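User: Need the bound-state model for beta-D-glucopyranose:
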Amino acid sequence: MMKKVAIYLFFLIFSGHLFAQEPNSEVKEIKKVFIDNLLSKMTLQEKAGQLRLISVGGDLTLDKVLDKIEAGEIGGIFNTVVEPDLSQMQERALKSPNKIPLFFGFDIIHGHRTIFPINLGIASTWDRSAIAKAAEVSADEATSDGLNITWAPMVDITRDPRWGRVSEGFGEDPYLTSEVGRIFVEKMQKQSLADKKSLVTSVKHFALYGAVEAGREYNSTDMSERKMFQEYLVPYKAAIDAGSRAVMVSLVSVNGIPATGNHWLLTEVLRNQWHFDGVVVSDHGAIRELINHGVASDPKDAVRVAIKAGIDISMNDEYFLQFLPELVEEGAITEDEINQACRHVLELKYDMGLFSDPNRNLDPKLDIDTMFADNRLHREEARDVARRSIVLLKNENEILPLAKNKKIAVIGPLADSKRDILGSWSGAGRANLAVTPLEGIKNAVKNPESISYAFGANLSDDENLYRFLNLYGETTKFDNRPADKMIAEAVKIAKKADIVIAFVGEAEGMAHESSSRTDLSLQATQKQLIKAMKKTGKPLIIVLMNGRPLTLSEEYAQADAMLETWFLGTEGGNAIADVLFGNYNPSGKLPMSFPYNVGQIPVYYSHLNTGRPRGTENMGKYTTSYFDSPNEPLFPFGFGLSYTNFAMDFSLSSTKMNRDGEIIVTVNVENTGNREGMQTVQLYLQDVTASVSRPVKELIGFDNITLKPHTKGQVKFVIKYDMLKFWNNKMQYVAEPGKFNVYIGSDSTTQDKQTFTLLD
Ligand code: BGC
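Assistant: Bound-state model below.
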C-alpha cells in the first residue's frame, strides 16, 4: 500500500494535481500519510504552535511575530490585510522547522474592501441571489488579498435588540438565518477549498451567543435543550451541513458551562452527533476568560479545560504554547489530544492547498494605495444588494417615490456620514470611498442645487455615549454649536423645501460588539430635530440608519414615509436614492420584529401559544397580555411594503399527506398596482396538536416573484415529511401525525390559512 501511495503522490506532485483533487479514498489516504509523517517530525512545542492564532498589535510588533513564526510558534495569523506583510510572514513560516505554511484570517462580515449592508440588512433582502452575490464578492476580494479564512457567518439567533451584535446576524428566525448562513458558506468556500477563490468560513458563535440574558453583552445564556435543538442550534448545524470547515466558539456560558470549556457542546454535540471534522477556534481571549467564568483556577488549568472540551485553536493568547507541552508532560492531558487538534489544523491547511502553494494569492508588490484603490471595488454589486436590503415601513398617500424635480431638504446627523454608513465590522472598508445619502441624492437628481442640507442635531447630547464611541479613536464627531442654532438652521432650509428627508438612527459604533443598550428609542437630540421638522408642515420622510430594531412609535406617527436602511455599506447613498426616487421599488422584509417598547422583549413571531391566548373577543383579564402595551410588535417579522400592491391566494395539492408523500402549495400572486415590483412570498406552518406545544407559526419557506403592473404569476412550494419534524416529548426528532395549518402571506401576521393532515 505504502509503495502505491508513494508512486501516486509522485505522480500527483508532478502532474500538478495534488491538493486540488476531490477527496476520494486514495487521495484521503495520501493526505493521511502526509500528515502522519509531518506530525511524527514535530515537537510538542511545534504542535502547540500550530494551535495558535495570533494578531500583530500592542507589544507583539511585526518583528516579534515574524521571529515567533520562524520558531514554529504560530499556526495562523489574523487581522493583517496588507499583502506585503502577509508575504513576509509566509516567507518566515517556510523557514520554520517543518516549513508549515500559515493561514491568514480576517473578519469578513459583510464585505471586504467593498462593504455590503450589515448582515441584518443582507437578511432583509430575503433574496437568495443577492445574498449569494454579497458572499461571493466578499470571498473574491478577500482571497485576492491573500486571505484564506474568515470568522463568519454569524448565525446566532437574535431576539433581543438590546444586544448590539444583532447587527451582525440574520435575525430572529431559524429558517431564514439557516438559509442565509448556508448561502454564505457555499458561496465563500466554493466546491473545493483548493479553489484559489475559496475562503474558509467559521460559523459562529457556537453556541447561543445571541441569547445573552437581558441582551447584555457577554452575559450568560440558559435554555432548555428542546429550544436549543429546535431553534437556536439549527443555523449552526445548517452551516456545518453546508460544509463550513471551521467553527468559532461563543464567549458565553451555555447552561452554566462556558462554551469554550463545554465538552457536551464541542465534543458530544458538534463532533459526535453532528460529525463535524473541521477546526474549532476559540474566540478572542476566551481561554483565559475561563478563569473569570469560574471553571478554571489558573491559566494552565484554563488550557486543560479548553483542550479537553474540544477547542483546537486558541485565538490570541500565550497560554496554549506556554502550557500545552507541560500539561502533556504532567499527564494532565495526552499527546493524542494535541495530535488530534493539530491534525484538524494541518488537514485544513492541506485542503486549502497551502502545502503545495503557500503563497497562493499573495502579491508582495501590492502596495497599500493600489490595494485599496477604488477600481478594485465592486460598486455595482454593492449597490444592488444595498437597495434590496431597504425596508419600506410606511408610505402614506404614496408620497414615495419622489419626483426628481422637487426641492429637498436633507437633514440629520447621519445624512452625510461616510463612516457610519459602512456599519461596524468593516475593517478593510474605506470610509472615504463610501457614498453618503446626501451624495447619493445629489447624484440622482438633475439639479443638485435643488438639494439643501443641514446637520440639524448631534446624534446625542450624552457625553458618556461619545466617550464610549470614541474610546479607541474619534469615530463620531460632536458639533459644539448650540443645539437650538443647529435646529434653527435645519428649520430654515426645510421651510424653503418641498419635502424634508431626515436621516436619523444610531452611530455605527452603537450597534457592534460590546454595545448593548437598555433604551432603544432615538436619542433626545434627534427626537427634537424630528419634532421641529414636523412642525414646518412639510412632508416628512424619515430614513433610519441603525443596526438593530429600535422603538419607533413616535416617529412612525410623525412620518409621512419611513424607510429602514440599516447601514448599507459603500454604495449606501446611491442605493437609498434609488429607492427614494423609484429607480428601485423596495422589496426588503424585516428579519427581526421591532418592539413597541423594551418591556416587550423578547418579542418574536414564532412563540408558543399559551393556555390563555389573548383572543380578539377576550382581551380583558386572565389572558396572556400586558395592560399597558400590545403583545404584538410595532413592525412584525417579515414585514415590508412596496410601491405597488400584491394580492395572493393559494391552494394545497391535497388535504392529506402520507409519510412518503408531499404537499404542493401553489400560490397565485397578482401585482394589482401600477409599478413593477418584487414580492417575497412567505410560507409558514403550524403543527396544531403534538406531544409538545408547537409555535403558533414557523417560517418553512420563502420565494421571490417579480411582476409587471397588473400581471399574475405563481410560486410553488413543496412540503415534505422532513419539514414537519420537531423534537418531541422524548427529545426524538420526529413528525407526529395530525393536523397542520399552512399559512401564506407577505409577513408573519398572515391569517391566510389552509389545512392538511399527516396520516399515521
Ligand atoms: C469577536 C469575534 C471576532 C473576533 C476576531 C471577537 O471579539 O467576538 O466575533 O471574530 O473578535 O476579531
